[in-house]
Amino acid sequence: MARIGGRSLWLAWPAGLLCAAAVTALAVIAAPGVPMAVGFVGDTLRAATGRHVVAETAPPAPASDCRHLYSQPLWSSLVWSPQALLSQRHTPPASTPEAVAAAAPAVVVTCHWRGEAGRSIETTVSTVSPDGAAAVATTLTAQGFACSTAADTTHCERAAGDLLEIHDLRADRWVSSTLSGWMPDDYAAIVASHAFFGE
């Protein structure tokens, strides 16, 4: 084997042996921790897989603030509307006191938008029991709302001039919107989708 000029063989051998001894010592010290490391990695992977399954099957929590109820385009159109002002509250739907009394909902959030020339939009997201949801639908129908059910969602609406009232119920969620002179495209559908599915 060819030697490299300037290298001392009597220094290289001891240095090589010292390095080999250091690597061997480190391997001996680390050996007891190998089963623990393998177990830790396995537990982490199993836990991550378990969390993923729960995230797919568990229903999303209802939006607790107004920003999470809107898609980005709808949010932008509302925020940049002339004289737009948002108030976040925890008040029940103002338009249907009879339905509120029948359902006894737990209000999650109420988003009240005020715009120019008296235009306004108010949306309330609530949680209700199955009996409460049925009571809402029955009460709204009795008040003249047109109600229909599709894909486990009950949709009720009533229009009178510039005032449009829309209610969507699915599982334990009730989304109530009142639009007065201000009707963005697909407003109720977008808000309901975010409230029901977190989309």
Task: List key phrases describing it.
6 helices; 7 strands; 43% helix; 199 residues; elongated; alpha+beta
Would you write up a description of this structure?
The chain has 199 residues and is of the alpha+beta class. The protein is built from six helices and seven strands. It has helices at 9-30, 34-57, 72-79, 97-103, 130-142, 187-197; strands at residues 85-89, 106-114, 120-127, 146-150, 153-160, 163-170, 173-180. Strands 1-2-3-7-6-5-4 form a seven-stranded antiparallel beta sheet, with helices on both faces. Helix 4 packs antiparallel against helix 5.
List low-confidence stretches: 51-57
Computed structural class: alpha+beta
Per the principal axes of the C-alpha atoms, what is the gross shape? elongated
Beta strands, count: 7
**Biggest pleated-sheet summary:** 7 strands, antiparallel
End-to-end C-alpha gap: 69 Å
Number of contiguous helices: 6
Order of helices and strands: HHHEHEEHEEEEH
**Helix percentage:** 40-55%
Question: What is the gist of this entry?
Answer:
This protein is an alpha+beta fold and 199 residues long.
Secondary structure elements and their pairing?
Elements lengths: L8 H22 L3 H24 L14 H8 L5 E5 L7 H7 L2 E9 L5 E8 L2 H13 L3 E5 L2 E8 L2 E8 L2 E8 L6 H11 L2
Antiparallel strand pairs: 1-2, 2-3, 3-7, 4-5, 5-6, 6-7
Helix pairs in contact: 4-5
